[in-house]
Amino acid sequence: LMAGEHMKPEFLKLNPQHTIPTLVDNGFPMWESRAIQIYLVEKYGKDDKLYPKDPQKRAVVNQRLFFDMGTLYQRFGDYWYPQIFAKQPANPEAKKKMEEAVGFFNTFLEGHEYAAGSDLTIADLSLAASIATYEVAGFDFTPYPNVQAWLARCKANAPGYALNQAGADEFKAKFLS
């Protein structure tokens, strides 16, 4: 990303939006991380635990994925990106919106081990990436005990969590230090 490879003509042929991540599976280009997750689990998943086939269970997973993209991560970006990329001062209202989003998530988790119920799903994998970014940015999760407990479960049980953490740590070193 920093080297600008996503702007090269050969990349733009795959993904004219030039966004990261982009996956090419047997010649099929795909971008947007949540869409990639759905595609991979539908094509290669051994069962439907990560993305249930039951319409109601799947609807909850989808809602959590959309919440992650449209609310949780969006509000992180609304608060931090002006500071990082435009050198603007912190916006207290945007910080309140971040806190509100984490509060919503804390409520979603009430009585559940994972974001969409009792099983780890792709919603948890996506949300864990966003929450890890909040965490490396120094967000205080003390008022959100359900999020704290969920994050501990994700750190222990989500496949690839260590790789995600390494990326979050790299983000912190590059932009937040």
UniProtKB/TrEMBL annotation:
InterPro entries: Glutathione-S-Trfase_C-like (IPR010987), Glutathione-S-Trfase_C_sf (IPR036282), Glutathione_S-Trfase (IPR040079), Glutathione_S-Trfase_N (IPR004045), GST_C (IPR004046), Thioredoxin-like_sf (IPR036249). Keywords: Transferase. PROSITE patterns: GST_CTER (PS50405), GST_NTER (PS50404). The keyword Transmembrane does not apply. GO terms for biological process: glutathione metabolic process. Its EC number is 2.5.1.18. Residues 1-48 form the GST N-terminal domain. The keyword Transferase applies. CDD domains: GST_C_Delta_Epsilon. Gene3D superfamilies: 1.20.1050.10, Glutaredoxin (3.40.30.10). GO terms for molecular function: glutathione transferase activity. It catalyses: RX + glutathione = an S-substituted glutathione + a halide anion + H(+). It holds the Pfam family GST_N. Residues 54-175 form the GST C-terminal domain. Homodimer. Belongs to the GST superfamily. Theta family. This is glutathione transferase.
